[in-house]
Fold this sequence. Notes:
The chain is an alpha+beta fold. The protein has 3 domains: about 100 residues, no CATH class; about 80 residues, Gyrase A, domain 2 (2-Layer Sandwich); about 130 residues, no CATH class. The chain is about 20% helix and about 35% strand. The longest helix has 14 residues. It is flat and about 75 Å long. The relative contact order is 0.16. The N terminus is likely disordered.
Amino acid sequence: MKQATIITTALFLILASTGRAEVSVKVKDLSFIDGLKENQIYGYGLVVGLQGTGDTRKSPLTKSSLKNVLKNLGMEGDDVASVNTAAVLVTAKLPPFVRIGDRIDVTVSSIGDAKSIDGGILIQSPLRGADDAIYAVAQGPLSLPKMTGSRRTVRTVAQIAGGAVIEREINPEIVFDDTIFIVLREWDYTVANSIIKAVAGKYQDAKPEMAKGGKILIHLVKDVSLPEFISTIENIEITPAYRAKVVVNERDGTIVTGGGVKISAAMVSREGLTVEVKETGKKVSASEVNDSATVKELVDSLNAIGATTADIISILKALEVSGALHAELIVR
C-alpha cells in the first residue's frame, strides 16, 4: 500500500466538470469551406556560416551543392570544405489565399551529418508544391526554438520567421455550380446534423444536405453576397457532441479529458496499488470510485493515495483494454 502523498511533478488538466456544460461553438471552429486548405511546399538548400558544426567531408552532396553555388557566382575550385555548411530541407505551408510578395514562416532541417545549424544562414532556396511549380523562395538567418524544463534543444532543426517570399499566387475555387461544401475537421454525424439544421434555419433556400465524402452541400442564396453568406454560416453557433476521448502525454504526464468520460465497474492492481471501481459507494482500503464514475474522479482518487504518473497512465491503458473506460485513449 503506497503512502498518501500529493503528486507535484505531473500536471493534470481536466477540462470540464462532472456536470456536463453545454458549450456553443462556431461552425468555422469545427469545419472549413471545401477548397480553402493549406498547401505544403518544400525545397533543398544550404546553410552557411556555421562554426565548424556543418556537414563533414563524408557528405559529398553538401560539397557538390556548394561547388554549384560558387560556380553560379563565377568562381570554381575543387578544394571546397563543407564544415561550415550544411545541406538542409526547407518546408513551409501556404495559407488558402496568398499573394505575390507575402511572407511565410519556414522550417529548416539538416539532412546530412551536421552537429548543429544554430547561427547559420540559409541561402536562396526555391520551394515547390506537389505540381513541381515554384511558389516561394526562402532565405535568411536561422533561429532555434527555446526549450523549457528538461526538454533538450534539437540543434539540427530551426525556423526562419517570415523567411520565404511568395512568388506565385493561389486562387482556390470554392463555388461549384452555385453551391459550396462544408468539410468537418473531425467527422461526426451529430455535428453534421446540427450544422445542417442550423443552416436551414438561417437560410431556408440554402437547402443544406449531406453529399459524397462526408461533405455538407449548401446552395447559394439569391440577393446575398458570397462573403456575407459564408461569413454568416461560419458564425452560426452549434453545440458539438464529439465522442469521448482521453489524451495522455507520457513525456510530461499531462492528461486531458472531458469531464463526462465514464468508467464502469473494474479492478486494477499494479505494483501493490489497487484501484477498484464498484457499483456501490462503499469505501475500500486502496482506491474505490463508483460505477459510472468519471476519469476526473479516478485521477483525483489516485492522486490522493500517491500514485505516480506512470501508475495513472498504466491504469488508464488497462481500463481501456478491459472495456471499462468508455472513451478513446490517445497516448502521445
